[in-house]
Amino acid sequence: MRITLDATPLLGPRTGIGRYVHHLLAELPGALARRGVAGDLRATTWTARGAALTQLPAGVRQVGPRVPARVLRELWRRTDLPPIEALVGRTDVFHGTNFVSPPTRRAREVLTVHDLTYVHHAGTVSSASLLYRELVPRALRRGAVVVTPSRAVADAVRSHYALPDDAVHPTPLGVDDAWFAAQPPSARRRAELGLPDDYLLFVGSLDPRKNLPALLRAFEAVRRTTPDAPALVLAGPAGRETALAAQDGVHLTGWLADADLRDVVAGCRALVLPSLDEGFGLPVLEALACGRPVVAADIPALREVAGDLAVLACPTDDDALADALTRVLTAPDGDDERARRRARAQTFTWAACADRTLDVYGAA
Fold it and tell me: For position 240, what pLDDT does the model report?
């Protein structure tokens, strides 16, 4: 079976989608071996720069010409040209890993829809993401089969697009073993990263759906009533928005390498993810793997990932968010609680994600 994946999300600093694509590519060879299926795995990118992918798993090769993603999306939202085979050659399956599934001549189309933010929170996304409102339905009309990072998104996609059950398949994400062994950063490393000794932590991008203004208001309310409350650290691309640092007690790290991110999460008092919408909420799972408490928005995907191990709050209610922050600071955080969190995280693996995805490739 020749399988080609869109690996464009691997270019540049890794977002959650980038981590998904990285781990899927890394685990698919093992999934094929477990089935006794001979596979030819290939990765392509849509970029005018033609950047070479580095650290591809053994046996995975990069294919395809230099073509700007913007140009391809404009063509594919209007026509069924060019088919993917014209770009990457013959393939049995093409997996559009990031909302965009190109037209094909014969290849099976598999499309990952990570969330429906572009539908339900259109005012929070970029103009490029708004094109998914046209690109996703075109792929569905061609018969593309959808995979999603959670059951919550699968249910939402079936409902919104009136799809039958067998057209949408949840393939829940996983967590690296390294997260279970992460340790808080040393005092020296905290100083190098500009971290306080005691901190709540947000991990993510400066994306309106992440609901950072509400988090900052809730944090300010907690600080007014609890002067010795931990600081708030914003880790990730959000750290480029220096205006966020104007609030007392807020620290920005900018983008962190994976090893640093794991240690920063392991050292937090609690992770906070107050998003208006999420397809999975990978930071929640990673925090649980570190044994750390979680405050999360009370939305379907985060309930699915965290189970009963997060303090949930309505993301549009500042008082509820502030109350959740206060509650997590006083909740038990001993060995038993940490073991329960890690046990929950261990039920999500990248190998299972790859196995379920390979099921879809075979049935698409």
Answer: 47
Neighbours of 194 (CB within 10 A): 12
Predicted local distance difference test score (pLDDT) of residue 206:
77
Are both 2-174+349-363 and 177-345 of the same fold? yes
Say which amino acid occupies 90.
Answer: R
CA R_g for the chain: 21
Q: Where are the domains of the chain?
A: 2-174+349-363, 177-345
Q: What is the C-alpha to C-alpha distance for residues 79 and 49, in angstroms, rounded to an integer?
A: 24
Query: Is the distance from CB of 201 to CB of 271 less than 8 angstroms?
Result: yes
Question: Which class in CATH covers the domain with range 177-345?
Answer: alpha beta
Stretches where the chain sits below pLDDT 50 are 239-240
Question: Which fold, 2-174+349-363?
Answer: Rossmann fold (3.40.50)
Distances (CA, A) of 291 to 231, 263, 284, 342, 343: 20, 12, 11, 5, 9
Reading the block at residue 246, the tokens are 């104007």
Residue type, 29: P
Kindly report, residue by residue over 168-189, the tens digit of the pLDDT.
999 999 999 999 999 999 999 9
User: Residue 168 pairs with which residues in a beta bridge?
Assistant: 146
Strands 61-63, 40-44: pairing kind:
parallel
Single-letter amino acid code for the residue at 210: K
Give the Cβ contact number of residue 281 at 10 Å. Answer: 29
The sign one gets for the Cα dihedral 282, 287, 291, 294 is negative
- Helix residue ranges, H only, 77-229: 84-88, 117-120, 127-130, 132-141, 151-161, 187-193, 212-225
Q: Which of 150, 118, 108 is nearest to 16 (CA)?
A: 150
